[in-house]
């Protein structure tokens, strides 16, 4: 794992956008793996700026999102489809037919999960996947205990995740309790992974991911066996790391 230490949220977002833009420029028909949550909003904003000011072209790209809430339609304001539309898709030239997000409102959720996995394979697999990290070390919606061989499936959200995501809903009991999420193996099949972490609330999860045991109890730690992961972490999120990890990190500081 390569650790890139940056000053704060803004720099993290710029560095992440540059990593993505580099891939988009080198392969027009890139397959992007996308994430939601507060963390990647700044990266999407920077990619939109690059599209508008530098002509960064997404017209041939395909995207697959990590997850979607069960029970919310694509038009629901808190659905991840809506999030992506507002924060990214609606402002760049990606072909809407090539943007994929699981449907959380279908009757046969199992069939939807298999269909989703198959469409990732049919697209040739994910070239570059962006990830955030949950306070409990989850990636996508793979909560602690998720097995390394999991593929896209319906998952039960933990109380800590429901509480963390309640800020987007009117009340905690409106947060869905289940989601469709790419599995650990789906994520590990991406050729390149960029994980972003910002703020002190992520410091413990970041330490466990980088310095703790490699264990399904901390799903992000499983990424340590992937050959091409870059963790972009800001000073607050890195605040619990050991001097050895900090010393081995690449810093953008002059
Ligand atoms: N499913 C998403 C994850 O993909 C995200 O990484 C995590 C952290 O979110 P945030 O970036 O808002 O801290 O929240 C959600 O649970």
From TrEMBL:
Broad class of enzyme this protein falls into: hydrolase
Catalytic activity: alpha-D-glucosamine 6-phosphate + H2O = beta-D-fructose 6-phosphate + NH4(+)
GO biological process, one term: N-acetylneuraminate catabolic process
Keyword line: Carbohydrate metabolism, Hydrolase
A Pfam family recorded for this sequence: Glucosamine_iso
Domain Glucosamine/galactosamine-6-phosphate isomerase: 11-226
Annotated catalytic residues: 67, 136, 138, 143
Gene Ontology MF: a single term: identical protein binding
Range of residues in the leader sequence: none
Documented EC number(s): 3.5.99.6
Pathway(s) this gene product operates in, as recorded in its UniProt entry: Amino-sugar metabolism; N-acetylneuraminate degradation; D-fructose 6-phosphate from N-acetylneuraminate: step 5/5
GO cellular component, as recorded: cytoplasm
Superkingdom to which the source organism belongs: Bacteria
Alphabetical list of PANTHER family matching this protein: GLUCOSAMINE-6-PHOSPHATE ISOMERASE
Similarity field: Belongs to the glucosamine/galactosamine-6-phosphate isomerase family. NagB subfamily.
Cited NCBIfam families: nagB, PRK00443.1-4
Cited function: Catalyzes the reversible isomerization-deamination of glucosamine 6-phosphate (GlcN6P) to form fructose 6-phosphate (Fru6P) and ammonium ion.
Listed name of the protein: Glucosamine-6-phosphate deaminase
Organism of provenance: Brevibacillus invocatus
Gene that encodes it: nagB
């Amino acid at each position: 794992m390569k650790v890139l230490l940056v000053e704060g949220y803004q720099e993290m977002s710029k560095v992440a956008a540059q990593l993505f833009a580099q891939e988009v420029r080198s392969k027009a028909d890139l397959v992007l793996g996308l994430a939601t949550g507060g963390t990647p909003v700044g990266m999407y904003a920077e990619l939109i700026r690059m599209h508008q000011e530098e002509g960064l072209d997404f017209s041939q790209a395909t995207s697959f999102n990590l997850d979607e809430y069960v029970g919310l339609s694509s038009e629901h304001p808190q659905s991840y489809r809506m999030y992506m539309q507002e924060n990214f898709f609606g402002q760049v030239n990606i072909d809407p037919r090539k943007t994929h997000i699981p449907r959380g409102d279908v009757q046969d959720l199992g069939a939807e999960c298999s269909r989703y996995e198959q469409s990732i394979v049919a697209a040739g697999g994910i070239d570059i996947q962006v990830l955030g990290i949950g306070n409990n070390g989850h990636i996508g919606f793979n909560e602690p205990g998720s097995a390394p061989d999991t593929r896209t499936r319906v998952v039960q959200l933990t109380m800590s995740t429901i509480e963390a995501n309640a800020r987007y809903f009117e009340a905690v009991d409106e947060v869905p309790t289940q989601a469709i999420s790419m599995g650990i193996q789906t994520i590990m099949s991406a050729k390149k992974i960029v994980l972003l972490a910002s703020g002190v609330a992520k410091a413990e999860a970041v330490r466990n991911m980088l310095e703790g045991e490699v264990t399904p109890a901390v799903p992000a730690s499983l990424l340590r066996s992937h050959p091409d992961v870059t963790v972009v972490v800001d000073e607050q999120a890195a605040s619990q790391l050991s001097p050895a990890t900090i010393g081995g990190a690449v810093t953008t500081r002059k």
